[in-house]
Design a protein that fits this description.
alpha/beta, D-Maltodextrin-Binding Protein, domain 2, 2 domains, five-stranded mixed beta sheet, four-stranded mixed beta sheet, 13 strands, 45% helix
């Protein structure tokens, strides 16, 4: 039962609306969206719920007709689904809410939108349905990774189920490294650089390391690699002057100074990096595990001529672990409309269904990111079906991830991060602290 829908008093909602207006919506739509959403929520009814609607972000995240039919047979609920791949789906939901249109009961959004949809009153806390899930199915619930819930938190409340994530890993061409007399795997970021240097020596005509800095392609890789290198975050604002921030800046500058990245790195995007590796024009990169399937289709064979390992969380040999592995996660939310019409508990059953091992594996085989559950990843047969390249080290790293750094300022921080990344690779000889001082001011200004 919801007692109220309001904004946390410590947050300036007007400033949030203005930031979103600049980055996500026309100003009029945003400012209108933040009116009329404060006040008591309607009480849930006791009427039986026989139909739910869910918006999924991608086609391959939707359970098959057979799974949906099984869900209906078990619960008596028909789940109507729609594919909404629009990355500005938050804007659409806000406009619908403001216009008095019915929202879907469940929505699938990028995890970084969690703070804004929670503050806007579009989605509701789900701790009650999750607690009921844990009580009804303690064994199954215990298999779900903690990051599923930590990446669903905002202001001390659980708002979403971040059940899938795309963990960045280090891809490297083992055959080219063998030509240079290098074996094993990179266990530190210094060794990542050494591996790239060895590949350059063995294959002087290819790009040793596939970094990219084209704006407008998202900055998830920057946040993930920063976190792994020990950069501290205040929400979504990185500390560039600390040891981690200085190391990250110098790492990128070293890639450029030693010509370990493309000369056109500023024009490169994620597709250039990924396509280059698959086409054997790039020796190393940071990318998520499912890309290895594309590599296989291009003639690359895991364990024969390439491998992937989790990103290191140490700078150098002998250092203590200073970094944390994090991943951007797509997240399922229950909307305020589901709660108001008394369908919140039933919507919770959909969340359960999506994390059932057979459903999770089906979706992973269809192309979805790995699901955060030992129901699949502790099953060696299931892993062999999905991605044989993942071994115990990959799975352990994935299962113990920290929280991806998001807050209400994330859209602004992401924009600054893209420009910062471009600046660093364009100024490889600038003192790292001078770079940090210049750009820390820009990140901090987001909060002004």
């Amino acid at each position: 039962m919801l007692s109220q829908r309001n904004f946390n008093g410590s947050i300036n909602v007007s400033s949030v609306a203005k930031r979103l207006a600049r980055q996500m919506l026309p100003a009029a739509a945003v400012l209108a969206a933040f009116t009329g959403v404060v006040g008591p929520a309607a009480a849930q009814s006791d009427e039986a719920v026989s139909e739910l609607t869910a918006w999924f972000a991608r086609e391959y995240t939707v359970p098959s007709r057979e799974k949906l039919a099984a869900f209906k047979e078990e619960t008596g609920i028909t789940l109507s689904v729609d594919i909404q791949p629009n990355d500005n789906l938050f804007a659409q939901l806000i406009r619908m809410r403001d216009a008095g249109l019915d929202l879907p009961d469940i929505v699938h959004l990028d995890g970084f939108l969690r703070p804004v949809v929670a503050e806007a009153g579009v989605v509701v806390p789900i701790q009650d349905v999750v607690d009921q899930w844990a009580a009804d199915d303690p064994d199954g619930f215990a298999q779900i990774y903690e990051s599923t819930w930590s990446d669903g938190m905002w202001n001390g409340q659980l708002y979403g189920m971040a059940n899938t994530a795309s963990m960045e890993e280090v891809y490297f061409r083992t055959d080219w490294l063998e030509q240079a007399g290098v074996s094993g795997v990179p266990k530190t970021w210094d060794e990542v650089l050494d591996f790239a240097r060895a590949i350059k020596k063995a294959q002087p005509d290819i790009v040793p390391f596939g970094w990219w800095a084209q704006r407008g392609n998202g900055a998830n890789l920057m946040f993930s690699s920063m976190s792994a290198m020990g950069v501290e975050f205040d929400g979504s604002i990185p500390n560039l002057k600390g040891d981690g921030g200085q190391y990250w800046i110098n790492f990128l500058q070293t890639l450029v100074r030693e010509e370990l990245v493309s000369r056109e790195v500023v024009a490169w995007n994620e597709d250039n990096m990924r396509g280059g590796f698959i086409a054997s024009n790039v020796g190393m990169m940071l990318d998520s595990a499912p890309t290895s399937s594309d590599a296989k289709s291009a003639g690359l064979e895991a364990g024969v001529n390439f491998s992937i390992v989790p990103m290191p969380i140490r700078h150098s040999e002998g250092d203590s672990d200073s970094g944390v592995l994090v991943s951007p996660a797509r997240t399922f939310f229950i909307t305020i409309d589901a709660a108001e019409r008394g369908a919140k508990d039933e919507a919770g059953l959909v969340l359960r269904m999506l994390m059932q091992p057979d459903v999770s594996l089906e979706l992973m085989l269809a192309g979805a990111d790995p699901h955060r559950t030992d129901g699949v990843l502790a099953d060696s047969d299931a892993v062999q079906q999905w991605l044989p390249i993942w071994d115990e080290d990959n799975i352990a790293a994935f299962s113990n991830q920290g929280m991806f750094p998001v807050d209400l300022d994330f859209p602004s921080s992401e924009d600054v991060m893209e420009r910062f990344n471009e600046f660093v690779v364009s100024n490889p000889d600038m003192d790292p602290m001078e770079v940090a001082e210049k750009w820390q001011l820009r990140f901090n200004a987001i909060r002004d």
